[in-house]
Structure formats: C-alpha cells, structure tokens
Design a protein that fits this description.
Helices cover 76% and strands 0% of the residues. It contains 22 helices and no strands. Helix 15 packs across helix 18. The chain is globular and about 75 Å long.
Length: 463
C-alpha cells in the first residue's frame, strides 16, 4: 500500500477518534483535515492544489438552492412543535384506539408518522411524544420498556418519511455523486436525481416500516396482553368526538399534502414547497392562538442554530473530502470495494454494514457527510440505482437514532422520562424496533422496486 493511501487511512481513523472525544463535528472534520494536509505537505506527498479548490466548494455549498430548503423545513417543524399540533393529535388518536389492546402504542405510532410527515425533526417528535404520552402509558400499566421503545421508534420515522432533513441532504450528496460517477464512466451529459425523487422513493418504504411497527405492536398486545392493556373508557361514545378528530387531523394532513404533493407532483421545487410549509405552519400556529413574539423568537433562534450546525458540518466535510482525495483515499476505497466478493451485492452489503456499526457511535449527519461522499460515486459507478441507494442509506441511518450507547432518540427520551424509568428499560424497549428496521432494510434490498416504482411512475407520467 502506498504512503498516500496510508495517510488517508490514518486520517479516517483520526477523525473518528476526535469525534468520539465529543469535539464539535464541524471543527473535528476541518481540524483533522488541515492537520493531515500540513503533515502531508511536510512529507511531500500532498498537493496544495486540493486546498486551493476549497473556495469553489464553499461557494457551491452556500449557493446551492436545494439546501435552502433545510432552514425552511426546520422552521416548519419547530413551529408545528411549538403550536401543539402533536398534543391534539395524540389526544384524538388515544381516544380512537385506546380501548384496544395496545391501542395507546398504535396511537403513538400513528401520531409519530403524522408528526414525521409534518416536521421531519426526530428530536422534537421524541421529546414531545415522551412528555405527552409516556406518563399516560405508564399510568395505564404499559410495560415501561414497551412504552419507551414505541415512543423512540415512532419518533425516528422523521428520518425516512418525507419531508425529511436527511433526505434533503442525501438528495444533494447522492445527486453530486451520481453525476461524478457518470463522468468517470465517460458520460459527458450526466443525468441527475432530485430531492423530489428521494421523497417519492421513501414513501412506500416509510409506510411499510410504519405497517411493520403496527403489526409488531398488535402481535405483542395479543400474545402478552399484560404488557399493553386496553383502556376502560370509550371516548368515541361522547358527542362531538368525530368532529374533534376531524379538526385534529385536517390541519396537519392539509399541510402534508400541500408540501409533499407539490414536490412529488413536480409543481414546486423542495425549496418552494418548504417555504409554503413554513408559511402554513405559521397560519396553523395563529389559528391555534399559539403564535406570539416570544414563540416566534424561540422558533427563529432554534432554526438558526440547527441550520448553522448543518452548514458548518457541510463546510468541514467538504474540506475533509478534499484532503482525503488528495491522499488518494478515493482510489483506496475503489480498490477495496472492487476486490470484495459478490460484486454489487458485496459492495453494498459491506458499506451498509459499516454504516450500521458507525451508527452506534456517530450521528447520522456525521455519517452522511463523511462516508456517503466517499463511497457514493464508487457504488453508483457499479450501475446501482441512485434512488434505491439513497433510500437504503436513509433507512440504515435511521437505526443510528436507536442503537446504544449513543442513539440520540434514547438521550432525548431519557431527558424527559420519569425517574422510575431506567436507562436499561429504554435500551431494552428499542431492540425489537431496531430488528424491524433491519428487516425493512433487507426487504428493500431484496425488492428495490419498493423505492424505485413510484419515482418511475411519476417520471413516466410527466413525459
């Protein structure tokens, strides 16, 4: 192995050590890259021209119209969370399903799905659901592990059900990787994919994952009813219940359909649809009398913090990627994946396995910005469908929120759970849902049409 390749490997190992130390991600990526670039210059095996390309990379990030959707979707999600949409939804769904065995678990899962399609922010959904539903589930004698697992798993649906922040980021990275792969293969008019393609591709796998969650909850409630007992009261007998249910469901459903429908139907770009969603969230907050100056300031502050974090990590990842390629790390990865047995399957399986285990210790943003730009062009050059690959990666990254010890959904719930709920019970509760996510990943690997059919139909109809 050449000295350049060894430097690339050492740099990759070093950045993970720095990330595990708790140092901010953006500075860990950029600082490690600059340190190794300086070392490479001293040793004479790094070309300064790679760093000279950084200003163009930064200009491309800041000028990327697709990424403008990120702050708009974040604003929409935070505003909806502050306007207590989840509270009214959960109350309505609990009354609808509460008298069934496992009814509260079903209600939490369905509300998690609707919140995922409304906000796309995992942290806000898990915290909100934990505050609202966990005390009720414990009071109704639900097993603490089952209750915690259901809340954490339903909260992570925001990763795969559009509009999802990770799908917006993956859409941009996969599109760039796809064009690079085509140029490497000699295609000088490369096709691209859009965030809308990934949104359409994620719908069926996302709904399939919700269906698997519901099947698991129903089976568990049937086989072990003592873990998920039914409630005694029947709110559906009360007058005005269905009207209240309609008023709770209609606002978020209209917002979801207007945002997703406009993107998938080709009526608006993700950025334009995100602006409609942000405006719609403000209207809903006004309608529920939840909007005031203090709330608006809080929402704007939270949006600015999240957006700044994402773009700083993007900049750090761009610098890391340039230095990694300067040490011929991309050639090393190409050789490693090409030499694996099994061709396409072996390469994809290996990358998915590495991403899954990285999810135990790293956040999805770190994996997205560090790993995907490196392996994406190589996998796509093997004639792998970019939409299918993007959805496979998104599903895989979803597990990173649940896998101990650093699953963020576990931390979010631990922060709002009552003291009588132990961390061990939270970890135990998410294990079946991690298995379900892996089953869904295997189903999608065996049946790629689950992700590619809807985008193909929309594209063909557009023609």
């Amino acid at each position: 192995m050449k000295m350049d390749n060894m430097m690339a490997l050492w740099m990759f190992a070093a950045v993970f050590v720095v990330l595990l130390s708790g140092f901010p991600v953006a500075f860990a990526l950029s600082g490690t890259a600059l340190a190794f670039a300086g070392l490479g210059l001293l040793l004479g095996n790094f070309d300064m021209a790679f760093l000279n390309a950084l200003p163009n990379r930064l200009y491309g990030i800041i000028g990327n119209e697709t990424l403008i959707a990120v702050p708009l979707f974040v604003f929409m999600g935070v505003m909806l969370e502050r306007s207590r949409i989840a509270e009214s939804l959960l109350e309505a769904m609990t009354n609808l399903f509460g008298t069934l065995r496992g009814g509260l678990g079903i209600a939490v899962t369905l509300v998690g799905m609707l919140m995922a399609a409304s906000t796309g922010i995992v942290g806000a959904t898990v915290v909100t659901m934990g505050l609202l539903s966990l005390p009720t589930m414990l009071r109704k004698n639900y097993d603490p592990a089952v209750a915690c697992g259901t809340i954490c798993a339903s909260g992570t649906l925001g990763q795969i059900i559009p509009p999802s922040i990770v799908l917006v980021l993956l859409g941009d990275i996969i599109s760039t990787a796809y064009q690079q792969a085509q140029l490497d293969m000699g295609v000088f008019a490369p096709e691209s994919i859009s965030v809308g393609d990934l949104f359409a591709g994620a719908l069926l796998p996302g709904l399939g994952l919700v269906a698997l969650y519901l099947i698991y909850i129903a089976l568990l409630a049937w086989l072990r009813p003592n873990l998920m007992p039914a409630a005694e009261q029947n709110a559906r007998l009360e007058s005005g219940f269905y009207r209240s249910l309609l008023f709770s469901l209609a606002p978020p459903l209209v917002l979801i359909l207007s945002v997703l429908g406009s993107i998938i139907g080709g009526l608006a770009t993700p950025t334009e649809a995100a602006s409609v969603g942000a405006f719609g969230a403000i209207i809903l907050a006004i309608a529920k009398s939840e909007l005031n100056l203090a709330t608006l300031q809080e929402v704007m502050r939270s949006t600015t913090q999240t957006t700044s974090m994402v773009f700083l990590i993007l900049i750090g990842a761009a610098l890391f990627s340039l230095v990694f390629r300067g040490f011929e790390g991309d050639e090393l990865i190409v050789n490693l994946l090409s030499d694996l047995p099994g061709g396409q399957f072996g390469a994809v399986f290996s990358v998915m396995l590495v991403m899954f285990f990285l999810g135990f210790v790293l956040d999805f943003i770190e994996i997205t910005f560090v790993v995907v730009p490196i392996v994406g062009p190589i996998l796509l050059a093997m004639d792998i469908d970019p939409v299918w690959l993007g959805i496979m990666i998104a599903l895989n990254l979803q597990t990173s929120f649940l896998t101990p010890p650093f699953g963020f959904a576990l931390f979010y719930l631990r922060g709002v759970a009552p003291s009588e709920v132990s961390t061990g019970q939270i970890y135990k509760g998410v294990m079946p849902f991690i298995a379900i996510q892996l089953i869904m990943l295997a189903v999608l690997a065996y049946w790629p049409q689950l992700a590619t059919w809807l985008p193909t139909q929309i594209y063909n109809n557009a023609l």
